[in-house]
Automatic annotation (TrEMBL):
It holds the Pfam family CSN8_PSD8_EIF3K. One of its GO terms (cellular component) is proteasome complex. Keywords: Proteasome. Gene3D superfamilies: 1.25.40.990. Belongs to the proteasome subunit S14 family. This is PCI domain-containing protein. Residues 85-260 form the PCI domain.
Amino acid sequence: MKRDAASQSMDSELEEAICKLAWLNFARARGDVDSCAALLSELKVLLTRIPSLPPSFEKTPNAVEELKIARAIYENAVILSLKIKDREALERNCCQLKEFYINTCGMIPPSPDEYPFLGLNLLRLLAENRIAEFHTELELLPLEALNHPCIKYVVELELSLMEGAYNRLINARQAVPHETYVYLMDLLAETVRDEVAECSVEAYDYLPISVAKKMLMFTSDQELLEYISEEQSEWEIKNCSVHFDMAKPKSHMNLPSFKLFKQALSYARELEQIL
């Protein structure tokens, strides 16, 4: 009797998950972000009561269906975190979803979105300039994954980044292999722009506005000026040029601590002469 009651309870939870997932897909299709967020919260709580899911992977009568439903829920969670541009939630949901892709191999049929989402996770690491983690994740993928267009796309982006071919990297935004990649491609563009800006400060005292605009991959002077105002407050616009003097690291020779150190050495020498 206890077994039957438990089975019926699990069946009802599975039915509830299926129903709410259908509503979630409907809300997502309508672009109703608030409803999606509410339904996802309810579904994640519901998943905690299902023992067939990782890390326990209990072999329940409905294990296959439950794993497939849970995977679909986390795929939706990744998409929602992209829509609301929540980077912390994106990282968390990508990690949880990866568990289903890696540890349910052979237990349930593969998801048609598996490689696009694994490629998305790689792109997330690349956009955050976490190159070591990017290569670690890449090495964990099966060989056949490397031939998938989404994975190849991100690998080529990383190659362009390492080669310093920034224009090629920025232009790749026009050819994203999956609609979910657009937000992260914008983040990657910001990362690249910040890298170029940092190198410009080190390499030049100033640059003509036209040159700075091209180097930082802006299409208009106004975009460049807005970037300087919002992100590079120490840069100055003078005589139709961008000046980096205020942003350059100050020489240690001018630091108060260095001056005190020099003064102490001078006193020590004078004391030694007296003695």
